[in-house]
Amino acid sequence: MLLQIPEVFSKAEVAALRARLDAGPWADGNATSGHQSATAKKNLQLPEDSDVAKEVSALVVQALNANPMFVAAALPHTIFPPLFNRYEDGDQFGLHVDNAIRQSRTGGALRIRSDLSATLFLSEPEDYDGGELIIEEMYGSQAIKLPAGDLVLYPSKSLHRVTPVTRGTRVSSFMWMQSLVRDDADRETLFRLDIATQRVASEKGPKDQAVIELTGVYHNLLRRWTEV
Fold it and tell me: What global pTM score does this model have?
């Protein structure tokens, strides 16, 4: 499931984040690439052990955990500390698939299975040309270029790329997460059931018998499919 989540950060919050990020120690983006990705990637990235990266990364995780739509869709078990990249002057990232396992490069023991990937846009679409995130889906390619503060969530198994930036600068945060529910189809079923239950509850009230029964079905499915 590909899902766009609006306003993870407000415009004022994005401006504050950008002020910190733009002054950071940007370096070659291939520092976190796997073998395949390194042959296709040309951009800049904040070293994950830099103070500014760790500070802003923690703010991103905090915002995600406070966002009901993100939590409902991702059902996150562990969010790998978000990273930050910068595209300009023809930078691009060719077609690739994210590594199945992500492990800390800073000496920590953190290791996750990447079930979901996400990009949080930190530049406005009109501030740069190109730079679309192209995600290959069963029914064709999806071109994603969102307002600053918005996020796109998609399965890590998806082939995807970033088109060349030909004007301006594209800054974003990118991240991976291990979900409580491994299977994409099961996770989407739970998300749709959750949304439908909330819709019924808003119309009939939370104590309506249908709402109680739908909530029971949701939690029984979650109990069956969850891996902890």
Answer: 0.93
